[in-house]
Structure formats: C-alpha cells, structure tokens
Amino acid sequence: MKHFAVLIRLLRDRNQFLEDIRQDVKLERKIFSLLVVSCIFFGIYGAIIGSSSSWLQMASSAIKLPALYLITLGICLPTLFFFDILFGSKLNFRQYTAMLMTAVAVISVLLFSFAPVVLFFLISIQGYNFFLLLNVAVMGLTGVIGVRLFYHGMRQIVGEEAKSDKMRNRLLLGWLGLYALVGSQLGWTLRPFFGAPNEPFQVFRPEIDGNFYAQIFSSLGSLLGL
Question: Is the pTM of this model over 0.85?
C-alpha cells in the first residue's frame, strides 16, 4: 500500500511531488514505488488485450507490456541525460529517472482507467482489426498525455534560466519524438500483444520485416474494407 500511496501523492499533489524531485528528496523510494505500481497496471492492461486470443497470450502480454514501456525508458534515458548535461543541466541521474517514472506511472494509471472500456469492446465486438486499432488509439492518447506532463514537469524543475533556453527546449521536444519512435518500433519487435486470429501462440514473431506504422495502415484499410 505504501507504493500506491506514492502514486496517489503524485496524482493529487503533482507540484509538491515535482518539488521533491527538484530537491532530491527520497528519490530511490519514489522511483521504486512508481516502478512497482506501473508494472501492476501495465500487467493488468496487457492481460486484458492478450485475452482476446488465448490464456497463453494473456500471460505473455501481461509480462511484455510492462517490459515495453520500461525498456523504452532504459534505451532513451541516457540520451536525455547526457545531452541535457552537455547543455547545462544541473540535475542528477536519479532526478531524470524519477521524472521519467512519473510519466510512465501516469501512462499506466490512464491505461488502467481505460481497462473496463477495452474489456467491454472485447466482449461485445468480435473484430481483430477494430480491437487492435482501439488499443493503439488508447495507448497513443495515454502516451501523449504522459509525455506532455513529463515535458511540463521538466520545465518546472529545471529553473527559470533553463526555461528560457530555446536549445534545451528543442532538445527536450526532439527527445520526446525519439522516445515515441523507439517505443513504437520496440512494440513491433516485441509483438504479438494481441495474438492474430487463426495464428498459433508465439512469444515473439519470427519475422522482423515491416514496421509498426505499416501494420496500423494495413489494419485500418482492412477495417474500412479498402
């Protein structure tokens, strides 16, 4: 329950939470608590989307969805840290990690809040392409909200001088684009999360050709009968 208390504090008093990060107050505890609750919420959502195929896919997706978000964070965090340090940042690595975990935690909570809606459509509509696109839309929306809060949170804790630094602001925006690209392509690499109909269960797809965006356009075309 202590882990969830940290998350509730983030959601209810975000400004004070960011101030704690700026002052480097008990960051290890905050990072660990947000990691635990994020994995739980991602795991629940992953199990729901995987249940559209089979029990094995449900278990696999419950593990792979938390891994998707956390591996993306691990890949992109060093780039943000070292480039921001190069342009004058005074924040330490723990503070960057804590900031990114706040974004990941918010995304996980929002996904969890969409879980009943997704479960309703899973039960009421039997359509793979619709279900796939619905979840891509949900993940896209929650991701945009999460990274937007991260961007404004970073601007809040870096101080007034850094806020007016156009180069650092552009760097941060560019990094957010990189984060989105890495996350979407990693999701393609770790697929399947849903399990295609009439396909046997696989932990990972052996084919590495194609990309996330081509699959989305293909699913949209199939849904619209194009």
Answer: yes
Respond yes or no on whether the N-terminal peptide bond of residue 192 is cis (omega within 30° of 0): yes
φ/ψ of 203, rounded to 5, equals -65, -45
Alpha carbon distance 17, 165 (integer Å): 24
**What are the distances in angstroms from CA 128 to CA 51, 68, 77, 196?**
12, 21, 34, 7
165-204 pLDDT, tens digit each = 778 788 888 999 999 999 988 988 888 888 777 778 888 8
pLDDT one-digit tens code per residue, 30-69: 999 999 999 999 999 999 999 988 899 999 999 999 999 9
